[in-house]
Amino acid sequence: MYYFLDVPGGASLTPIERKFASLVLLPMLAGAVCAAQSTSWPAYNGGVNGDHYSPLDQINRSNVDQLKVAWSFDTGEKGDIQTNPLIVGRTLYAYSPTQKVIALDATTGELKWKFDSGIVGRQPDRGLAYWTDGREGRLFAGVMNFLYCLDPETGKPIASFGEDGRIDLRKGLREPYQEQSIALTSPGVVYKDLIIVGGRNPETHPAPPGDIRAYDVHNGALRWTFHTIPRPGEPGYDTWPAGAWKNAGAANNWAGMSLDAQRGILYAPTGSAVADFYGGDRVGNDLYANCELALDAATGKLLWYFQGVHHDLWDRDFPSPPALFTLHRDGRTIEALAQTTKQAYLYLFNRVTGEPLYPIHEHPYPASKVPGEVTSPTQPKPDWPLPFAPQRLTADMLTTRTPEAHAWALKEFDTFVSEGQFFPFAVNKQTVTFPGFDGGGEWGGPAIDPVTDTLYVNANTIPWTGGLAPIHHNASEGEKLYMEQCAVCHGSDRGGSPGAFPSLVGVEEKLSAEGIRSMIRNGGGRMPAFPNLDDAKVDALLQYLGTSPSASDGAGGQASAENQPPEFVFTGYRKFYDPDGYPANAPPWGILTAVDLKTGKYLWKVPLGTYPALVSEGMKDTGSENYGGPVVTAGGLLFIGATVFDREIHAFDTSTGKLLWETELPFAGMATPATYMVDGRQYVVIASSGGRDPKGPVGGGYEAFALPK
User: Fold this and answer.
1) Rounded distance, CA 448 to CA 323, Å?
2) Is 109:131 a contact under the CB 8 Å cutoff?
3) I want to staple 384 with a disulfide (CB 3.0 to 4.6 A). Which of 121, 202, 358, 546 is the partner?
4) What does the pLDDT read at residue 700?
């Protein structure tokens, strides 16, 4: 099997239940506050169980159309905000686009304090973590590679934590630590007196290992570490080449974690190992990359795992924290877990034992023909529920928006390989990934209504393509560096994928040399920092970027005099868009789906979002590329922003999928909303920043809505 139980008695439930029965059984643990027991929003996605659910019902199906702006806050900055804010008591905690931490009055949006670390952070920051013992509180905020511990009343660092109020997360991963790259893009999880974190790592070599670590909330001391790339003597070591732990990287928890606070079980989904699309140096199944990990939250001990992709070559990370729920089925009660995926599979497990709720079978797939690559002969797929997005792009699914667009798409499609999931990439030929590299399901994750046992998930249904190109040994140093470090996002031709990854053709005319240096050193947006590149390497890279793309032989150069075989790199993320900038497949391009968890059947599926320019031409139900997750309430509503091009926040009827209310935000809401109640008034708040539409406005603020007083 592709999961195992590391508990006394193997798959028997009784021993592990007996073990956890000895733990604290209070429904509320210090700092691990569940949304269902509070009218605040005290943890990422509402509660440490990750279900995105609120018991509030003041705003409901009958009155949601009366919502008005209650307050707005402008950070004064422009950039991408993906933050799901915390609301504790009367205070809302959030980030600005440059990772300044802000505290606002949750009823007026008035600024209480702002913490500026002095670091201009340009990575996504999706949330914060809050701890309290009932007497004092602590706010944990990631700023690039640092984890800060702040006084929630003042915003000042608590000096007794770590080194003057912060921990450098690079330390302890690999030496020299100054050359490691990690950013806390998703918040840690608080369990008792621990703050447990993962982190974002680069997707190219070199990258540090994606260790999951727990620190003492009081002094910042390291309490435990789980090695996602096993070391000698640890289970899973033989799924990598010998000694891989010394130089293999990532297999990291960038998406965030969930917690069964009552049982003390931490659930950590992990991503792929580097390099994302060629694994000739990591032949094997590569545990614990692409895994759902269940760890003892107190010790880091592995309880069970499930690997969703063996030897990942498609960047199929588990993209979001799992949602925990209690399933009532056939007269039984099952403590369960739901994990959505980029390929649109929905995995459901007994979260205590790791046993699937529906069968999961291994299916055979073709072997790679790329030299040095050894693909896994099989990959897992759940029998049920069926995928929540299409799995293979075929010619009859291409756009018919205009005859010209259809003809173009058909001609282009004929040059691709399009065989569905887990089909190996080829050299110098594009292969379709559908859903694309951004899902399917994405980092916003699902929401679950615990009353009806219904799961809601938004998804992208846009095809992307990718392929491999060789790096030849007679290439210049700058070209090699570009192909190894930059081509994965900006493409082997430097053309990028506008809207997701900018073109670098002519970049020297847009940015100064110092501006490019700063971006390489510090990162920005989706781009991680590259501290491993010294001045000489950056100079070589700048020199290469100053040449015209045609001056490089990149993917087609001749082999070196030594006739050494080339290494292979990804040609870059490429969206399959038509010449007018719309997806080259027929809509919908973004969807919202409801799944009955008792039966695995779909209750409804609707398009999510629009393209305003197409609406004016009569195309209304196209759906939109979307980022950020849903929130479900006891009022029978699902709130979601996420849509890139129409910049709307929406409210849907959870029973039918009917759109009940929407309003345009100042900027697209690329974040998951939050809902809370203060002084008897319910609010819905969302970050508004834009950033994914290259033609759309970009800002940085928060919009809160409520019923009229």
Assistant:
1) 7
2) no
3) 358
4) 97
47 within 8 A of 36, measured Cβ to Cβ: yes
pLDDT tens figures, 52-87: 999 999 999 999 999 999 999 999 999 999 999 999
Residue 457 CB partners (closer than 8 Å, separation 6+)? 340, 346, 388, 441, 445, 446, 447, 592, 593, 595, 630
369, 374, 380, 386 alpha-carbon torsion, rounded to 10°: -30
Contacting residues for 245 by C-beta, under 8 A, at least 6 apart: 209, 227, 229, 230, 231, 232, 237
Residue 105 has a CB neighbour count (10 Å cut-off) of 15
Please give the sequence-ordered ranges of beta strands (E in DSSP) within 45-164, or none if there are none: 53-54, 68-74, 86-88, 91-95, 101-105, 111-115, 129-132, 137-143, 146-150
Determine the pLDDT at residue 564. 41
Q: How many residues does the chain have?
A: 709
> Could you check whether the bond before residue 466 is cis, i.e. omega within 30 degrees of 0?
no
pLDDT at 5: 41
> Are the beta carbons of 570 and 487 closer than 8 angstroms?
yes
What average pLDDT score do residues 104-128 get? Answer: 96
Domains present along the chain, CATH in parentheses: 3-55+73-466+579-706 (2.140.10.10), 468-571 (1.10.760.10)
- What average pLDDT does this structure show over 452-460? 98
Q: Report the SS3 class of residue 458.
A: strand
pTM of the model: 0.88
- Mean pLDDT value across the chain: 89
> Which of 238-252, 430-444, 468-482, 537-551 has the least mean pLDDT?
537-551
Element (H, E) at 539: helix 535-545
- Distance, CA of 438 to chain centre: 9
The answer to whether 200 touches 183, Cβ cutoff 8 Å, is: yes
What does the pLDDT read at residue 499?
58
